[in-house]
What does this fold into?
Amino acid sequence: MPFTDRSELYVAVNEAGINRAIRHVMRQRPSLFNYATARVIDHRELWCRPIDVHPVVTARGNPLFTVVPPVPIVATKGGYAIDAIAQLGQAAVDLSPVNVLEPPTELGPMPRNSFAAMAELSAGLGCPSELPSLEPTAGRAVPTLTVLPGAMTCFALQVFGFGSARFVGQPGNEHIQARLLGFDTVAISPQGLEDAIDCYVRMVVQLGILPQLAVPVIRFARDLLGLVHVVIEPSLAVPQNPLIEEDQIKVFLSAAVSALPPAPPAPPGPSAPEHTGGVIRARTRTGPFDLVGAVSEAAVVAVFNQLLAGYQVDKAGSRSFGPFTASYHVHAHSGGGAVELNNDGTVGVRDLDIKWDTLQVCLGIDIPEICIGGFCIIPTPFGCALRAPRLCLFSASPDLQFCLDLGGFLHSTLSLAVRPTTRYRVDPGRTFGMNDWDARDAGVPNLWQVIADPVSIRFELINITASADDLFGDAIDAAIDALLGPLPGWAKALVRAILGPISALVRGLLGIADDVEQWLIDLIGNLGLYDLILDKLSDYLGKHPLAELPDPFPILEEEPARIAVMLPIEYLGVQVTDAELVIDADLGGVP
Amino acid sequence: MSVFINRKLLEQTTFHSTAPAGLACVVHAVAEEGEHELHFLDADDAVSETVPVTVAGKRPTGEATAVRLDVNPTKLGAARLSRGPSGSPAHHVIQPGADLFITTPAPRDACRVRLVRKTDGAVVFDSASLGAGDRFAVTLIRPGRYQVENQLDGAKLVLTVEYPVVGKQPYSPPPPMQIECTAGGFQAPTTTVKPAQGLIFLCSAPACLHLALVEPDDGPHQDAGPTRTTPAGSGSGGPPHAPLTEEARSVLRRVLRTFRGKPDGG
It folds into this structure.
């Protein structure tokens, strides 16, 4: 059954992928998981546990902790306080059905459509090993004095919880956010203390951490379908959405796809850079993919239509054919066509019209020189001894050029099959030593691209939808008129009389046997214009990806003094079935 | 696209055997051996250029013909300036029976030509007075009615050049028509000729021939402007035309520029 049988877009992430993502988030945004008073932050020996941090976090001076105020010593009316620290260590989720973690029985049975989560929590207070001599401050208003700790008194707890996921946020920009359903700390007594800790930690997670980990899936999907205008929202056709089952979280999105308006004319100057040069990168892992996405046939068709709408050819050139020369200027674009997904892994495009906006073919020929006069004055038995002066016309080479505007009359179609494939492109603007965040800042991130790789292209010239004879005759007459323009009527008549029927003359010079239309079709082919159409289309598809994903892929935007959290995409694959386009992805691991 | 048309030649409607130019020429066969001089005369009949010519050798027989001497005032004038290693002026050596072929492409360069025997100054040939055996050949292109006059005896002939017709086959002018120029006047097989058909006037009596368009034929559409009779001897200009368009002027300027660089026009 297709993934998109109930929605246009489908995304499923398995628990292994989510756990990899959690580790990346914890390394790249440590301040979200580590809290301490300022003095403790500055003294690594006071931390309860070491922090595994991404080197760029350190290089860019991002904080490892979020600063919290010292814990006040009650009854001192704010006179004294002590340092504190709380750190979240390893964390993992186990999507329904639970088969990796072992949640405590106190949590009860796991609800349907939920996940289990486990984390190690370390916390401590900066209690002095020996209470120093301090003045009592009872009844006095004094600045708070944080008592110097001897060493941190840390403890570690293992916490478990059940959670579910839901869409939150404004329509059009919904995020997926986890929600705690139950929470328990392991082996704390008395029960009241455990309950109190559970309560506090649950509030920290629910109100503090999880909102900052909301994933903007709608925006991700919209960016992926960047070629088209798309309105995406959570699908209402699926009762449980997101759905957590089979060790995955599955998201169903409805998408209303429409074509983008035509791009305005590009300003003068160099054209926008094209993202070429990607290479195929094979998968190195085995087993299930971390992420599986699917795009319905309707959405794929819309994307292809938009892609093909941008195809155009503009070229001018010339070629000599011996007795005549031919030059051309062609501007063509594509339109129409029927896109369909084939069961052989390709996307087919049938009867794509090639619209020849301009197809001007100019022919330059040498009209035979005609001479007036030159008759024999003194004939001899052996020839002519003396000839009269003569006046010759059409001695230039070529002396007649006429142009055929075939643009509106040529009817041709293309049919092609492409195999969507992925390539990995390292931006050539990326310099040695530049890390992923530097590349992102410089606008030169590496890209995973989905390319439509042509498998076959067939060009079919249907016909010239006009009387080629008329086109030909009219063009020649106009050219002769222009050529003889300055001459008086009687002189034109004489030249035309000597030349005879011009059209027949020119056809003879061009070697047109009978069928002008077939001759023109052959000429266009000999000029290489059919090959040009095919080559340019192949080139265009190679330079214009169906979709692009930056690698690493940002899931949390940067914040002041905090780098963006980005997930490395180790592999991206794509395949086509007769119902949808499926994308498979693996996230890179943490070193 | 370009076309080179010597429009002055195309529209030439006046021809004179005294100073043949364009599509007209005079042919005179040199009979006497000896040293001669070609004299080119200016408008006042004063000698402006002199070119030495030696007539020597055996008269060719059989298939061989004497090499003709092109008497083009412009070219021979230039030849006069070219001197050999000895520093003497270039001169021409021709065989007895060789033809003097007198013409010049541009009517403005045309002039009267005389061949003078060097020893006694006797005039052997004068283009102003063709003699027996001399020929005056001309190609009439412009349709209309022409008058031919022998200005030495007043004999006249009216010829009509037909308007060209575009047919199913390319038009090729018929062979030239020969007209006898005798003491009793012109003897022509017909008075109607096809456009661009050649005319050869063969003289058997002294002649000074002048052809001029007297009534142009602008064809069924009359698209060459109002017709006008060109007075005889009024020069080589054709009938007036409708005002030229700017495009036509531009093409004409280009043609004229090109022509200046290609004196033969073709």
About this structure: Chain A has a mean pLDDT of 86. The longest helix of chain A spans residues 191-209. Chain A touches chain B through 46 residues (CB under 8 Å). Chain A is about 20% helix and 40% strand.
